[in-house]
């Protein structure tokens, strides 16, 4: 029925102003927001119950999100997890000025204390994108300049962040050998090898990298977690492999800087 007056249209608009104008968009964003707050992949039934959305609708929306790369279906677990496009969104936000501005003085101080080059990066799909780079005097040039993308599974920053993700999420990012890029012939090339690397990161409390990005250079890195405990970024220091450096000592300097940056971005 067509309203017979402008007043009728206005009244109808007022009556529905507190309702979503695009219900599917509202439901999709609510699903993504809830998934982002979970410690790992979640069942569709759980999403439907928590959000009071019909289960059939949840399945349809998840299927669309999967087509666009925002979620992945872990069929064996009957659960859904965030996929690479969701990480792209998160990385896009974190690459913007707030995190770089907050992290830049801390990275400069870290490089000064360590006497080595230091950098800050964020996840973007299966890559790390570097947003702050501080070169130490008389140290070799690095490839980790601002804006450079490197495979996360090969870098200390990326490994630190991957180790902080739920194992199911890592499996969604690296489902098979085709997901593994190579630079120097070193580093994990299969999901099983990556699991071993990340197991060592969790046991040590920091990530190591030796010539997997650039032959002759080593790095150690730690993750920076946000208020929900998710890895918001990673920081690392890099030095020539002929340098006799105590990796545990460097990791301690990294942890101090990471803790302060976590405080500044709102983690308690």
Automatic annotation (TrEMBL):
The keyword Secreted does not apply. GO terms for biological process: negative regulation of DNA-templated transcription. InterPro entries: GAF-like_dom_sf (IPR029016), HTH_MetabolicPath_Reg (IPR050707), Tscrpt_reg_IclR_C (IPR014757), Tscrpt_reg_IclR_N (IPR005471), WH-like_DNA-bd_sf (IPR036388), WH_DNA-bd_sf (IPR036390). SMART domains: HTH_ICLR (SM00346). Residues 22-84 form the HTH iclR-type domain. Residues 1-22 are annotated as: Disordered. Pfam families: HTH_IclR (PF09339), IclR_C (PF01614). The keyword Heme does not apply. GO terms for molecular function: DNA binding; DNA-binding transcription factor activity. PANTHER family: HELIX-TURN-HELIX TRANSCRIPTIONAL REGULATOR, ICLR FAMILY, HTH-TYPE TRANSCRIPTIONAL REGULATOR RV1719. This is DNA-binding IclR family transcriptional regulator. It comes from Microbacterium invictum.
């Amino acid at each position: 029925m067509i309203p017979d007056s402008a007043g009728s249209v206005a009244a109808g608009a007022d009556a529905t102003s507190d309702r979503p104008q695009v219900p599917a968009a509202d439901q999709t964003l609510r699903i993504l927001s809830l998934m982002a707050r979970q410690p790992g992949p979640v069942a569709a039934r759980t999403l439907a119950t928590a959000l009071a959305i019909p289960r059939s609708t949840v399945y349809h929306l998840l299927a669309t999100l999967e087509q666009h790369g925002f979620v992945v279906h872990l069929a064996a677990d009957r659960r859904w997890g965030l996929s690479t496009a969701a990480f792209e969104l998160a990385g896009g936000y974190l690459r913007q000025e707030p995190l770089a501005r907050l992290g830049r003085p801390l990275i400069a101080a870290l490089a000064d204390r360590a006497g080595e080059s230091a950098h800050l990066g964020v996840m973007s799909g299966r890559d790390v994108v570097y947003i702050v780079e501080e070169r130490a005097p008389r140290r070799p040039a690095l490839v980790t300049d601002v804006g450079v993308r490197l495979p996360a599974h090969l870098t200390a920053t990326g490994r630190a962040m991957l180790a902080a993700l739920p194992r199911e999420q890592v499996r969604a990012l690296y489902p098979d050998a085709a997901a593994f890029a190579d630079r120097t012939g070193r580093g994990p090339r299969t999901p099983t090898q990556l699991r071993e690397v990340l197991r060592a990161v969790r046991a040590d409390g920091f990530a190591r990298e030796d010539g997997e990005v650039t032959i002759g250079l080593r790095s150690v890195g730690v993750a920076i977690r946000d208020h929900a405990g998710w890895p918001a970024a990673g920081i690392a220091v890099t030095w020539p492999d002929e340098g006799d450096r105590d990796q545990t000592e460097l990791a301690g300097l990294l942890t101090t800087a990471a803790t302060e940056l976590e405080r500044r971005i709102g983690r308690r």
